[in-house]
Each structure stands twice: as C-alpha cells, then as structure tokens.
C-alpha cells in the first residue's frame, strides 16, 4: 500500500509555541522589510495587533489591513488585492480566524492576476501561482486553513461558497500560538472546533486517504475529542492541543480531501448564513447513516481502539454547547441547485460512497426534517 500522497505540500516552516505571534515581524523578516498584516476586529480590540506591530524592527515597515467581519467574500478579497497593488509588500501575514486567512491567501495568491477574484472561482484552471510569501497565524482552532493551499470564499451575487486553490498558495510560514485563542468567544470555539473534528473525520474516511493522512487525521480526532469541550469552557490549557489538532487536520484534508458533509455544508451555509462548523456538525448524522455501509470498519476502529464514538460525541457536544440544528423545519428555495452544487463539489467526489442526485435529496430531507 502506498503510504504518501502522490504529491506532498506542506508549509516551509511551522513555529508552535506560546507567545510566538509577537515574534511575527522578526520571523517574517526573511521575506523582506515591507509587510502587510491582515486581521480581524478582535485582534485590534484586544491590543494584540499593536503589540505585534510594535515588535517590528526599526528597519521594517508593517502596515495593517482589517477585515470587517463575516464570511470571506470575493469582494473582500478584491479589496485586499487593491491594497496590495497600491503599495506592494514583500510579504503578507494573516493573523485571525479562517476568514482572515482565506482572504489573505486568495489576495496574496492573486495579487498580480488580471481578473477579479470571482472570475477565478469560475475558472479554477486559470488560478495563478503566488508570488508573495504568506504568513498565517490562526486565532481560532478549526479551519486548518493555515496548512492548506485552499481559499474558501463566498460570492454573494451567485449565492455561492466555493474554493480557489493553487498549490503555491500554501503559507510559507505558520505560527501556532495558543495565546491568540485567549478570549475567543465560546460560540466561535464551538463552530471552529466542530469544523476541525468533521474535517479530521472526513479526511480519515475519504476515498483518497493514505496511511500518512489517516495517521494525521487520527491524531487530530484524538486531540479534538479530548480538548474541544474544555476549550469551550475556557480552559486555556486546551488551546495548544486544539491548535495543533486543527493544523494536522488541515494537512490531512489538503491531501485526502473530505466528503459529502462538506459538499452539503458549503451551499447550505451560504444560503442560511450558518457558521460552517455548525453546518458540518448538523449534516454529519445523515452522512454517517448514508456512508455506514462503506465506513463501518472505520467507525468500529475509532470506537473500539480509540474510544471515539463519532455520532455520540457530536451529539454530546451539540447538547453541552447548546447548539440546535438551524436547518430543522426550514425550506430550501432552490433544492435542485443545492443538489447540483453538492454533486459538483470536490469534497463529495472524495466521499467513501458514491453520491447520486437522489442520495443528495434524501440527505437534505433528513437534515431539514
């Protein structure tokens, strides 16, 4: 059996230690003197942004660009691309959640591309190579975006949530600093952590999984099972374990892809404005029932060797975190289009069991009943 994926893409360097975010300017100095740091509102309000910027050596110029919040969109990526074009930096850093990292990844990767960002969502084969080094320091433990070459962006005009990917877009430098998770709201911890868990599970059972990716997925599953609820309850010692688990899941999904949960969660999240991790968690039980004939040995292995009952654990978390299914009893205005997007997804293509249009419709009926 082949152990490694056909091609292996990893960040060039990863620094994992408490307080490392304050060293970002010094660590990025290798890429040049001029940098742009993309961030969200919380980094600024907490004072962490000022502390990072003030740590820059006198010979460096690091300017800040703020993402106003919400899902990362093609329009926000275009705004950041315009800032890069107006004053080209030597490197771009993203310090924030998956939204900030995905925006910075797309903007840095497409900095010199001639078309608007939405064009490259439609024409994946024309996505250009990145010329600007990207530094990623996640302030949530969930998306694993710091470890992948993928930017997931929404296009409000098309009511679409879709990825842009190019292997050169993977961050050159990753900083995993548990201090960045201090003060993260419980709802954000829950949504991000559920996303990480589902990503670890789907990459574990993906038809493209290899022993290399399955081992990473397994490590991530174990650590998330142990640390998600403690982090939700603000036990800060769990932050480092969750950050590393999310990073490992990111590497695994980058090479193994995911499954029908993510194939469904993207169109549903875009239409109902539901946090991605919560959407994934609410789609998981239906997907588990559908995939059970193909993944029963995997479920047995996780439960009997590692003590992880996937369905029971997610149900326990949803109850403990007081999260309800936001889709229950609601109606999809365009079910045919949701099914089309689900079947067109690369995640669905990696599902351990083939998914037909009738299967997707049945899954949606279960999720919304």
Largest sheet: 6 strands, parallel
Tell me roughly what share of residues is in helical segments.
Answer: 40-55%
Number of strands: 8
Assigned CATH architecture of the largest domain: Up-down Bundle
Please, what is the CATH homologous superfamily of the largest domain? Dehydroquinate synthase-like - alpha domain
Percent of residues in beta strands: 5-15%
Short description:
The chain has 15 helices and eight strands. It has 369 residues and is of the alpha/beta class. The termini are far apart.
Description:
- This protein is of the alpha/beta class and 369 residues long.
- The chain folds into two domains: 13-180, 3-Layer(aba) Sandwich (Rossmann fold), CATH 3.40.50; 185-368, Dehydroquinate synthase-like - alpha domain (Dehydroquinate synthase-like, alpha domain, Up-down Bundle).
- Helix content is 51%, strand content 12%.
- It has 15 helices and eight strands.
- The strands form two sheets. A six-stranded parallel β-sheet has the order 1-8-5-4-2-3.
- A hairpin with a 4-residue loop joins strand 6 and strand 7.
Keywords:
369 residues, single chain, alpha/beta, Dehydroquinate synthase-like, alpha domain, six-stranded parallel β-sheet, two-stranded antiparallel ribbon, 12% strand, globular, Rossmann fold, 2 domains
Topology:
Elements lengths: L12 E4 L7 H5 L5 E6 L1 H5 L2 H7 L6 E6 L7 H13 L4 E6 L1 H12 L7 H6 L11 E5 L11 E6 L4 E6 L7 E4 L9 H20 L5 H22 L6 H18 L3 H13 L3 H31 L3 H11 L14 H10 L1 H4 L7 H12 L1
Parallel strand pairs: 1-8, 2-3, 2-4, 4-5, 5-8
Antiparallel strand pairs: 6-7
